[in-house]
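Most newcomers find our protein records easier to grasp once they have seen one. Read left to right, the backbone structure tokens trace the chain's path through space. Once this layout is familiar, the rest of the handout is easier to follow. The record below serves as our worked example for the rest of this section:


***
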Amino acid sequence: MANVKPPKYVRQVLVTLQGRGYPAYLVGGCVRDMLLGMRPQDWDICTGALPEQIMEVFPDSRPTGLRHGTVTVLVDSHAVEVTTFRTEGAYADHRHPDMVQFVGDLTADLSRRDFTMNAIALSADGLLADPFGGAEDIRRQLIRCVGNPEERFEEDALRMFRALRFSARLGFTVDLFTMEGIRAKAPLAACLAAERVREEVEKLLLTRSPETMFTLIELGLLSSYLRPGLPDPALLRRLSRLPRKAQPRWAGFCRILLLAGCIDSVEGFLSSLRLDNATIRLAADSCAILASPLPQRDLDRKRWLRQYGVETVRCALSCYDAFTGGHESRELRRILKSGECFSLRHLAVSGDDLTALGLRGRAVGEMLDFLLEYVMEYPDNNRRELLLALCAGTEE
């Protein structure tokens, strides 16, 4: 496990439960990441203790998910989720089990999990419980469902997105039968809440392999949100050149979808996925910039900065550079570094100055716009005395 070990507070929970006679194991993603030599972000424990028994052992714990057997144990200001071994009933909504039954069998608990690499348990003394060959699949870099893939996706349709997201994140191959199961059950994605779909899509976009989005779309997992068609996989691959931040990745993705005819409107697409208004606006404006002729003059670049703002223009030009190998972001950095004026905030005169000259109402705004356009073209002339003189001369 490349010397990756659980922290002391996690071991304390495991050992305390075992000391009280309850089997306890690390389980799921933390075990997978340890086997990969990665430091887990979360530590989850499964146990044979019932929720009320867990709370008896740890009096400061919180019942954060009793219906599903989950208790959050607090140790030295750290939180560890501890869940009772369980099996699950039918999934009428293809997302949540209709009922949960607590059991005393670790293998039964592991059998309900999504992929073999997530169905491995690790005891405090370092022994693996791996009834479905997850460790070998990790070694082979393979994503494979526990049991019948179609049954797993019938239970929880979000698992189809997770399979492709794990593939993109870890560089693993999705098992052939698992992939066939995704293709067969892809229509179930329409049952999922838009917020959950958005979360999975965003996580995939932020990986080093955003081109996996092509497979997700080709399989039909986004058919509820897209028109028929397929984006350019080469452009999707170039999304990896963008910063690993949500807004530029969404903006670049939307530009690719527009080019492929998969969406008519950035606002409509992102709103349907319940993205926040700031990201929708930035992505829509970035795509509008990318659909325009590229500025050849600094004046035109500054006009973009004035109209859209620094962050939006920076995002759009980063996308342009990622897709074309251009250097427009460098040109933008040069303008910003120069300190040249492109907004009223940096203009050497204000509305109060113009009011003192006798201007009123709309005339103030019109004069400020005139002065800003003048200064953007002649940046060295952004001086208060000169601009006031220009105003006086213009009024005469």
Notes: The mean pLDDT is 92. The domain at 222-338 is CATH 1.20.58.560 (Methane Monooxygenase Hydroxylase; Chain G, domain 1). The chain has 20 helices and eleven strands.
